[in-house]
Design brief:
There is one protein chain. The protein is 33% helix and 21% strand. It has ten helices and nine strands. The strands form two sheets. Strands 1-2-6-9-8-7-5 form a seven-stranded mixed β-barrel. A two-stranded antiparallel ribbon has the order 3-4. A hairpin with a 5-residue loop joins strand 3 and strand 4. It is extended, with a radius of gyration of 39 Å. It is an alpha+beta fold and 342 residues long.
Length: 342
């Protein structure tokens, strides 16, 4: 895990330097909106609801909508004047009984790890919370906003650790606007319900439960991939899983380096020879062949097994040979030596 915040827990005259880690992560399954025919991602434009024109990101401001639908535009200067804090202190306000904290208030959980110099006071605070069976109500500044949170002790495989849980403000908890009228409940029904509770009674073990929906989605996606039901789009960045040919990768690297220096590659030479314009081919055909070329041509025209002699090379062959020779002369000496070495 990576620490997302550093500060100190202070209670009385004691200060405990700590690091803050996110204690939870979401494994919720999310889907992309795509074009069904080719799998392309669906993009959304920022369009003004009044004039219908697309709005550039630089022209977007923050607006606060009132209850009657009026819009108040807030500038960066307005927001800069709002109260904010960057304190690095987790200040303990009071220690309260655990049962007084409604779990509905809990929002986000964090692990607190002590710095090396704060290990002893950390252990002291942890033991005090356990012995008193209380939670510490604290105030802390996260993301430049002051929040109310509690400190409590949680037992883990690594040992007892102090957990900080931020809380929602009281006015953020909604009050139900409905009433329940169940009528008269008979004693026999209550007795039977109590028996059912006793039958299903047990200890809570979180490992007994699993997200079967996420597992089913993963199995479905895996089956489609194995069946070849995938859309390879230009924006796909993940590897196809094929084994990379090291030699081919090195050859591509050499070609890229040569291209960066303005040099022609071996493939470029072959392409130039095979696809040279007609005028250049004709000019190359009129160039006298050297002795080495003549010897090579003579070797190729060796008599066949039946004693007949192979016909002399056609002009097209001579043109291609001459073209290759002309191209070879243009290549730098260092690259030619490298070819021979390979």
């Amino acid at each position: 895990m990576r620490a997302i915040w550093k500060g100190a827990v202070s209670f009385g005259l004691v200060s405990v330097p700590v690091k803050l880690y996110s204690a939870t992560e979401s494994h919720d399954v999310s889907f992309r909106q795509v074009h069904a025919s080719d799998g392309g991602r669906i993009k959304y434009q920022r369009v003004c609801a009044i004039d219908g024109e697309e709005v550039a990101y630089a022209d977007i401001a923050k607006g606060y909508e009132t209850e009657d639908g009026e819009m108040v535009i807030l500038t960066d200067d307005d927001l800069a004047d709002l109260p904010s804090t960057s304190s690095r202190e987790i200040a303990v306000e009071k220690f309260v009984p655990t049962e007084q904290i409604d779990p509905m208030l809990f929002e986000k959980s964090y692990y607190l790890e002590p710095e090396k110099t704060g290990a002893k006071p950390y252990a002291l605070l942890r033991q005090a919370l356990l012995d008193a069976d209380r939670m510490a109500v604290v105030t802390v500044a996260l993301r430049q906003r002051t929040s109310v949170a509690v400190l409590r002790v949680r037992s883990t495989e690594a040992g007892d650790v102090i957990v900080m849980q931020t809380m929602m403000w009281p006015d953020e908890i909604r009050t139900p606007d409905f009433s329940i009228e169940a009528g008269e409940v008979k004693d026999s029904e209550v007795k039977m319900a109590t028996m059912l509770v006793d039958t299903l009674a047990g200890d809570f073990d979180a490992t007994e439960f699993e997200d079967d929906y996420a597992g089913a989605v993963e199995a479905l996606v895996k089956a489609k991939i194995e069946g070849g039901e995938i859309k390879r789009t230009p924006t796909s960045t993940k590897s196809s899983g094929e084994v990379v040919d090291l030699l081919a990768a090195l050859q591509r690297s050499v070609k890229a380096a040569q291209s960066a220096r303005g040099e022609s590659t071996a493939d470029d030479d072959d392409d130039d020879a095979d696809e040279e314009p007609t005028a250049k081919k004709a000019a190359a055909a009129n160039t006298p062949a050297t002795k080495s070329t003549a010897k090579k041509t003579a070797n190729k025209s060796t008599s066949k097994k039946d004693g007949t002699t192979k016909a002399p090379a056609k002009k097209a062959t001579a043109k291609k040979t001459a073209a290759k020779k002309t191209t070879a002369k243009k290549a730098p000496a260092k690259r030619t030596a490298a070819k021979k070495a390979s």
